[in-house]
Specification:
- This protein has 130 residues and is an alpha+beta fold.
- It has helices at 44-61, 79-84, 86-97, and strands at 2-4, 18-20, 23-32, 69-76, 103-108, 119-128.
- It has one domain (16-128): 60s Ribosomal Protein L30, Chain: A, CATH 3.30.1330.
- Helices cover 28% and strands 31% of the residues.
- The two termini are 13 Å apart.
- The relative contact order is 0.28.
Length: 130
């Protein structure tokens, strides 16, 4: 996996401009912060943590890890609430992904299918060729 950082571009904070990877691709559908018993905790930080943990569990089914994620799309219902929860989201990120920063797109949406959901994250990972 190689991070793409064009010369002269500012270093991004918390994401990569692009990534090149070769191997088996794993596509993870949008995950909300819903626990296995179908509870959605309040707040962006808690929901982000659970969505990332859900992603981690799905990746494990394919033999992948969160550090093999190359791309994520985050859908949030309120960008101001998202920004205000930055420290909590950062702690959840560090707990699940560590210092790994894939290419990320964040989109503010009117709502998500689950009315309690504040964030939905879809991911693509690449398991390196052996």
């Amino acid at each position: 996996m190689q991070t793409l950082q064009p010369k002269g571009w500012p270093q991004p904070r918390g994401f990569a401009h692009g990534i090149v990877a070769e191997g088996k691709q794993v596509f993870v559908a949008g995950q909300i912060g819903q626990t296995p018993d179908e509870q959605v905790p309040p707040g962006f930080g808690a929901q982000t943590r659970q969505a990332l943990l859900n992603t981690q569990v799905i990746l494990a089914e394919a033999g992948a890890t969160p550090q093999q994620i190359v791309r994520m799309t985050w859908f949030v219902t309120d960008k101001r609430d998202y920004l205000a929860a930055g420290k909590e989201i950062g702690a959840a990120w560090k707990e699940v992904l560590g210092a790994h920063f894939p290419a990320i797109t964040l989109v503010e949406v009117k709502s998500l299918l689950n009315d309690d959901a504040k964030i939905e994250i879809e991911s693509t990972a690449v398991i390196p060729s052996r």
